Amino acid sequence: MGEGEPAIEEDLSFHLKIADLSGNTVLRTLLGIIAPDLVRHYRDLKVCDDESVAVALDQHKTILRHIVARDPEAAANAMTVHLQKAFAVSLQ
Questions:
Q1: What angle do CA 81, 49, 32 make, to 5 degrees?
Q2: 49-64: pLDDT as tens digits
Q3: What number is the average pLDDT over the span 38-52?
Q4: Which residue, 20, 84, 31, 75, is CA-closest to 55?
Q5: d(CA 26, CA 41)
């Protein structure tokens, strides 16, 4: 496996599981289609370095906490922040 490969796979698994549990088949299908490109992009840009992984894990915990609390608005807000930060990291 390449550098950060387990983190990339775990990140993708987290997002796929949320899509599965949401019951949104369009979102799940879309993520399934773009997953190979996401993995390649993350690998090429070394998005999953130690610092980025720690930040993403904290963000994932926040998202999960809101899901468990059945607070969809807070979960959606936390996911928006997470995706914006992931996008910003990928541009560096």
A1: 60
A2: 667 788 888 999 999 9
A3: 74
A4: 84
A5: 22
Is pLDDT at 1 greater than 50 in this prediction?
no
Q: Among candidates 47, 36, 37, 35, which has minimal Cα distance to 92?
A: 47
- Alpha-carbon dihedral angle through residues 26, 58, 81, 73, given to the nearest 10 degrees: 70
Q: What are phi and psi of 46, to 5 degrees?
A: 50, 45
In this structure, the number of other CB atoms found within 10 A of the CB of residue 61 comes to 11
Nearest to 2 by CA among 54, 39, 51, 37: 39
Q: Which of 41-45, 59-63, 72-76, 81-85 has the lowest mean pLDDT?
A: 41-45
Q: How far apart are CA 17 and CA 69, in angstroms?
A: 17
**C-beta of residue 70 within 8 angstroms of C-beta of residue 85:** no
